[in-house]
Amino acid sequence: GKRQYDRDFLLGFQFMPACI
Amino acid sequence: QRAASPPRQRFLRWRPPNRWSLWFFKNDKSKTWQANLRLISKFDTVEDFWALYNHIQLSSNLMSGCDYSLFKDGIEPMWEDERNKRGGRWLLTLNKQQRRSDLDRFWLETLLCLVGEAFDDHSDDVCGAVVNIRTKGDKIAVWTADYDNREAVTHIGRVYKERLGLPMKMTIGYQSHTDTATKSGSTTKNKFVV
Q1: Testing the interface with B: which of A2, A8, A15 to mutate, by most B Cβ within 10 A?
Q2: pLDDT of B89-143, one tens digit each?
Q3: Under 8 Å between Cβ of B46 and A18
Q4: Contact (CB<8Å) A20/B51
Q5: I need a labelling partner for B180 at 20 to 30 A (CA). Which of A1, B2, B9, B116 fits?
């Protein structure tokens, strides 16, 4: 199947230093 | 002291399959519709998605008449685009109270569905999503490429409804863009409902 990015995986990046 | 501090992390720049463009529409009646539509930014990594999302206003803070649109790179957020003109949208209409309770989390969930390619093999049919901030009730829609592709459209609708956590008995409808563009009266007929 196609590659998916799970929502929790994506949310885990929200407040990483590179994302702020 | 140097040994005690954690090593600087190298982020690998997680790269989803598609590059996305975020657009902003502000309703200035002195200008044409096209002139009011602006490309904000593009991203193709998870880090850049969040850097953008964290930087811009929440939908609930926008003025009435404004839109955000997130579309795959190369697709403009309008019916007339080659990739949209045979397509349609799953439309979620919110009441006024939902601007406070649901709008921002529904829009974020929509973005996560798109960027995360949540629709399995049918993610290729997704073109983008739009949130409209309107006094009479906000709207969120997922746009797909082909209104005749029943399998793709209904799969996308079912997954989307589930991801939003909508109650079973609440239905959302899918309308083709041509029907929406040519409707007489205030409502467009649904091709599909879930």
Answers
A1: A2
A2: 999 999 999 999 999 999 999 999 999 999 999 999 999 999 999 999 999 999 9
A3: no
A4: yes
A5: B116
CB distance from A8 to chain B under 8 Å? no
DSSP state of B149: -
Identify the DSSP state of B34: G
DSSP string, B157-173: HHHHHHHHT--TT---E
The answer to whether A4 and B18 have CB atoms below 8 angstroms apart is no
Residues of B in contact with A9 (CB under 8 A): 116
DSSP A3-19: ----HHHHHTTTTSGGG
- pLDDT value at position B35? 95
Distance CA B131, CA B133 (A): 7
Type of residue at B4? A
The answer to whether the Cα torsion of B52, B53, B55, B56 is positive or negative is positive
Name the H helices within B31-149: 46-55, 98-101, 103-115
Distance CA B1, CA B150 (A): 62
